[in-house]
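Backbone-to-sequence.
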């Protein structure tokens, strides 16, 4: 990877290694969300996908994620620009909008621990949907966007 590649390349120009490295591992995109039909507003929950390892904040079945979880959305340069529910801190969103990465991003800090310390990861904010009965999902909704 070229040093500070995200400052000189567009999302379309990233190779596979650079694309994967750009993810800060916050796992905010793995939270369960719904779009309300009456006002198009996105509501998010305090639940994360059952496939997420809450300790590492990584998908436990990344290569098969779309098979296992049909609602798992694919992030591409195009969707990084159009998904209004991605957090402001998401590295793909920031690069797509021409904004710099924060100092806590692992590509700059050299460790994923800074993501947790910065308070932007799902750590300590969520519980796994694997541990919640479907009837109780509504009680875990909170307004976010
Ligand atoms: S929100 Fe963005 S930076 Fe965070 S885990 Fe998802 S894709 Fe990666
Ligand atoms: S399948 Fe994996 S990448 Fe997709 S939402 Fe679930 S944990 Fe996240």
């Amino acid at each position: 990877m070229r040093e500070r590649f995200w400052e000189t390349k567009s999302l379309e120009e990233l190779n596979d290694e650079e694309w994967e490295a750009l993810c800060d591992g916050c796992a905010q995109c793995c939270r369960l969300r719904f779009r309300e039909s009456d006002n198009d507003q996105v509501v998010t929950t305090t639940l994360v996908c059952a496939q997420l390892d809450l300790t590492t904040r990584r998908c436990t079945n990344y290569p098969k994620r779309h098979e296992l979880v049909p609602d798992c959305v694919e992030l591409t340069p195009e969707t990084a620009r159009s998904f209004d529910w991605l957090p402001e801190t998401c590295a793909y969103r920031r690069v797509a909008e021409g904004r710099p990465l924060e100092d806590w991003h692992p590509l700059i800090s050299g460790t994923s621990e800074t993501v947790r310390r910065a308070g932007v990861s799902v750590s300590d904010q969520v519980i796994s949907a694997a541990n919640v009965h479907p009837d109780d999902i509504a009680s875990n909704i909170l307004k976010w966007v």
